[in-house]
Specification:
- The chain is of the alpha+beta class and 385 residues long.
- It has three domains: 109 residues, Acyl-CoA dehydrogenase/oxidase, N-terminal domain (Butyryl-Coa Dehydrogenase, subunit A, domain 1); 109 residues, Butyryl-CoA Dehydrogenase, subunit A, domain 2 (Beta Barrel); 144 residues, Up-down Bundle (Butyryl-CoA Dehydrogenase, subunit A, domain 3), CATH 1.20.140.
- The protein is built from twelve helices and ten strands.
- A four-stranded mixed β-sheet has the order 1-4-5-8. A four-stranded antiparallel β-sheet has the order 2-3-7-6, covered by helices on one side.
- Helix 1 packs parallel to helix 4, helix 8 packs parallel to helix 10 and helix 10 packs antiparallel against helix 12.
- The structure holds flavin-adenine dinucleotide.
- Flavin-adenine dinucleotide (FAD) binds next to strand 1, strand 3 and helix 12.
Length: 385
């Protein structure tokens, strides 16, 4: 007999309260500026402090570093951010709170938590994650930026590419080569960007995620204290891969919420817009297309929730997370196409949400591990390949 209480997903009244306050903030303070911030190619720095004031950047972290809540609060964060209607802001916030910083919480020293993690969760310092390089994106084990030990310091030389929050980051969680060629010679460092020799090569001009500053960064004889090493020397590859799991899960959860929003908008537009004497939504082709998408989105949601559950409980989840990102990412390409199509000409002008979503959506099958990389990972975790 049903108790009337849903067991799964395990959202409690506390999660619901967080969702309500976050949604109110996102709809009031972010969404109205979505098109303007995309046009400007940046959003105000105050968004970081505004989100932090809600506790949204600290979800999933212990109170000792200014956090609170559990992993299902992170799920709420990734879901509600899509209501900002601005993929660049969403990505910046998730990099700040769920991609550049979890690793500091896991393996950082008390000093690193105080200098980098806590100010990031408070929105006072902007964080970036520096893994990708001009010649090494998917192939992380091949990264070339070096950190040479000289006395009590590391001296860093190299370049990082496509770095989100890159033009205004106060620090970068930086992947560097400290040892042999391949995955066994990689380390992680907390890198403050006020170090001599650091420069922003350029802000990259992109087709989507326009309000997010994505940058090429240069490091020329940059000296940082050796104690800024994160965890053990030459053990960085393992931590990068672990860290990717949270990043990919947020991407999958956000993609599901984004697709749901696209279809909701398409249904609304289809009801309002008439052609040939009836609302578009009454045409069977559109009903069927959108219902098919709703069905697939529901499947994507439960696949993602299943991965969230494993991840939240500390169970192995790499296969499920990779599947969730792969499925949601590839599905999004079809959903966004049809949802733009039903908008007709309005879907082609950038004041419409769906026009901007059309280009933003391309990122999910490329960034944070391309769909092909997800397939490689899954094949390694399924017996028989
Ligand atoms: C907007 C944006 C923001 C980003 N933010 C960050 C960030 O904050 N920090 C960061 O470190 N990086 C960031 N990235 C980098 C991103 O993670 C990489 O672009 C991504 O990992 C792919 O790497 P790549 O571009 O070098 O593509 P490549 O590795 O050159 O791959 C190109 C394509 O080849 C195919 N391919 C690659 N390997 C295989 C394979 N083994 N089998 C089959 N096909 C394959 C895939 O289709 C892939 O898309 C960002 C990228 C973008 C576009």
């Amino acid at each position: 007999m049903s108790t009337g209480t849903p067991i799964f997903p395990p959202f409690t009244p506390e999660h619901d309260l967080f969702r309500a306050s976050l949604r109110a903030y996102v709809e009031r303070e972010l969404a109205p500026h979505a098109a303007d911030w995309d046009a400007a190619g940046i959003f105000p720095r105050e968004v970081f402090t505004g989100m932090a004031a809600l506790g949204a950047l600290g979800v999933g972290y212990p109170e000792s570093v200014g956090g609170g809540g559990d992993y299902w609060h992170v799920v709420v964060l990734a879901e509600e951010l899509v209501k900002s209607r601005n993929a660049g802001v969403n990505m910046a916030m998730l990099v700040q709170a769920q991609m550049a910083t979890p690793i500091i919480n896991e393996i950082g020293t008390d000093e690193q938590k105080k200098l980098f993690l806590a100010p990031a969760l408070a929105g006072e310092k902007i964080a970036a994650l520096g893994v990708s390089e001009p010649d090494a994106g998917s192939d992380v084990a091949n990264l070339k930026t070096t950190a040479r030990r000289v006395g009590d310091d590391f001296v860093i030389n190299g370049a990082k590419m496509w770095i989100t929050n890159g033009t205004r980051a106060d620090f970068v969680t930086l992947a560097v080569r400290t040892g042999e060629v391949g995955y066994g010679g990689i380390s992680l460092l907390t890198f403050p960007t006020d170090v001599k020799g650091f420069s922003i090569g350029k802000k990259l001009s992109k087709i989507g995620n326009l309000s997010s500053d994505t940058a090429l960064l240069f490091f020329e004889d940059c000296k940082v204290p050796a104690r800024y090493l994160l965890g053990e020397e030459n053990a960085g590859f393992y931590h990068i891969m672990t860290n990717f799991q949270g990043e990919r899960l947020c991407a999958a959860v956000g993609a599901v919420a984004g697709m749901q929003q696209m279809v909701d908008d398409a249904i609304q537009y289809g009801n309002e817009r008439t052609a040939f004497g009836k609302p578009l939504i009454k045409m069977q082709v559109w009903k069927h297309k959108l219902v098919e998408h709703l069905t697939a989105i529901e499947a994507a949601r439960w696949l993602a929730y299943r991965a969230c559950d494993l991840f939240a409980r500390g169970e192995p989840a790499t296969k499920e997370i990779s599947m969730a990102k792969l499925f949601a990412g590839d599905l999004m390409q079809k959903v966004v196409y049809d949802c733009q199509q039903i908008h007709g000409g309005m879907g082609y002008v950038t004041e419409s949400h769906i026009a901007r979503a059309f280009v933003d959506a391309r990122l999910i099958t490329i960034g944070g591990g391309a769909s092909e990389i997800m397939k490689e990972i899954i094949s390694k975790l399924v017996p028989g390949f």
